[in-house]
Amino acid sequence: MRKQAVWAMVAVMLALPVGVRAQGSSWQDVQVADIETMRDKFIQLGEAFNESQYTWRPMAGVRSVQDVLGLAVAEAHMFPTGWGYDAPAVAADGFMAEVGRAAALSKADMLGELETSFGFLIDIVRDMPESKRLSDGSYFGQAMPVHASIATAMADMHEHLGQLIAYARTNEVVPPWSASNQ
User: Does residue 16 contact residue 29 with C-beta atoms inside 8 Å?
Assistant: First the structure.
């Protein structure tokens, strides 16, 4: 599992804009900037899909657009519980319950929840003391240091962002930050 966490950190670093890496930022600052970028992209894609496209899924048994956005909300709310933090009061009790709650939101509510859930996650990662980052944590029940769990969680969230980008392109929704949109 340690090898997976190292590769997750490498993947996150490679996914970041060069400017973020070049500023001499701490690993914590890099992670916060990464989460902020993901927040912006999830919200922009959530806005770019029309509400009727929220129920689109590539095939039966696969998450819909709304499900992927809801999953991002749930992960932003629930990942910190593996680092010793409480989920926010708005979150349902337990990861799967939160996934279900978030995936049932309307487009307007989803966009608001993306903003607040990522804000919650950003605040935790930004304000986390180094001693906490080096303490024992977990990722879906797998024991690992908190800093490695954060990196693994961000790699997972990037996977879902990629999934949503693929959904967008399949539905001829151009990601707002895409060069082909300019």
Answer: no
What's the CA gap between 22 and 29, in Å, rounded?
12
Q: For the purposes of burial, counting CB atoms within 10 Å of the CB of 85, is it exposed (0-12), middle (13-18) or buried (19 or more)? A: middle
- Note the pLDDT tens digit of each residue in 41-100: 999 999 999 999 999 999 999 999 999 999 999 999 999 999 999 999 999 999 999 999
Domains of the chain in sequence order? 28-171 (1.20.120.450)
Q: Are 28 and 128 in contact (CB under 8 A)?
A: yes
Give the torsion sign (CA, 118, 159, 75, 11): negative
Q: What is the pLDDT of residues 134-178, one digit of tens each?
A: 999 999 989 999 999 999 999 999 999 999 999 999 999 999 988
Task: Confirm if 69 and 42 have CB atoms less than 8 A apart.
Answer: yes
Tokens of 132: 């906490």
Q: Which two tokens stand for residue 37?
A: 């970028």
Dihedral sign for Cα 83, 126, 158, 48, please. positive
Give this prediction's pTM: 0.85
137 three-state secondary structure: strand
Structure tokens at 176: 């707002």
Phi, psi of 138 (to 5 degrees): -155, 160
